Amino acid sequence: MNTTNLQIPIRRDLKIAATEVALEQGFSSLQEAVRVFINKMAQKTIDVVFIPKTIKLSQKAVKRYNKITEDIEKGIGIYEVHDVDDLMRQLNS
Questions:
Q1: What angle (nearest 5°) sits at the alpha carbon of residue 41, between those of residues 39 and 45?
Q2: Residue 81: count of CB within 10 angstroms of its CB
Q3: pTM of the predicted model, to two decimals?
Q4: pLDDT for the residue 24
Q5: Does 19 have pLDDT greater than 90?
Q6: Distance CA 85, CA 91 (A)
C-alpha cells in the first residue's frame, strides 16, 4: 500500500478535545476520523458547512424577549435622536 504521513501542528488541548469527540462519535481514534473525512473529501461525497448549533432559550428568556418585542411594536422604550449630542445625552441618562 502506497501511504504517506500527514503532519498537522495543532495545540495539544485541541487534539485532546477532538480525540474525545471522535471517540464519542464511534471512531477508534482521531486518526481514523481524519482519514474518513479526507477520503470523503477526496471523493467529493461530503460538503463541509459550518452551522452553529441552535440555542434553546429558557421559558423565562422567551417570555422576556416576547415582552421586549411587544414593547417595541407598541413604541414603548423607543427614543428618537436628532444628533450625536442628543444620542450621548440619552445614553448617559
A1: 95
A2: 12
A3: 0.52
A4: 97
A5: yes
A6: 10
